[in-house]
Amino acid sequence: MTSFQIKLLAVLTMAIDHIGLFFFPHVLILNLIGRMSFPLFAWLAASGARYSRNLNQYVIRLLGLATISEIPFLAANRQIDPSFFILNAVFTLSLGLLAILWIKKTTRPWQWLLITLIAALIAVFLKTDYGAAGVCSIVVFYLWHENLKKTIIAQLVICWTWYFIPTLVQMSLTHHISSSNLQNLIELASPISLIAIAVYNGKQGPKAKYLFYLFYPLQYVLIFLIQR
Length: 228
Description:
Number of helices: 11
Distance between the termini: 38 Å
Oligomer: single chain
Structural class: mainly alpha
Mean pLDDT: 90
Radius of gyration: 17 Å
Largest sheet: none
Order of helices and strands: HHHHHHHHHHH
Strand content: under 5%
Shape: globular
């Protein structure tokens, strides 16, 4: 697959996820398919950080997109839950890229770990979508971009650490599966996206630089209008 095809797959799975979330919440397969989306965007962001001529501008563009998208993001989600408030996933991508920006200025692995932990904690404090797990995922994709085996192992460790193990512990204490438990278990489907990354052929394909920049906020505007 080319990076263009992976981008299209990321956008498509995100659209399927949001169709399920906002209009067919009981159709589990839509949510499962949607779990592929964020890891693909995380990989694309990490790849962009590796090959970007100006990483500072890349981060600024993403932060601008995140800020613009937050209003329709909140508007659409508050039709479901009036008290809903988190920062959208583009803020998480931005934090991951900021961590990479700092990592590129250092040479010691312990500093990479410290930077990643700080960025992850900021994501938790700001309540960004995908939070600490999302930030760590982006950094891992960047650090081991050319080592598929290490990438797969690290992504599985992240997934199990943030979703499976805490859920297993909570379920053993409460003896029932809550909606949050179920959502965490659904997140375990996200490593399926690694299949697409594994067959990446190193080619860019057709340029679609602003596909995501346009689609991400506009989808929430459309969702909000349909809800109304």
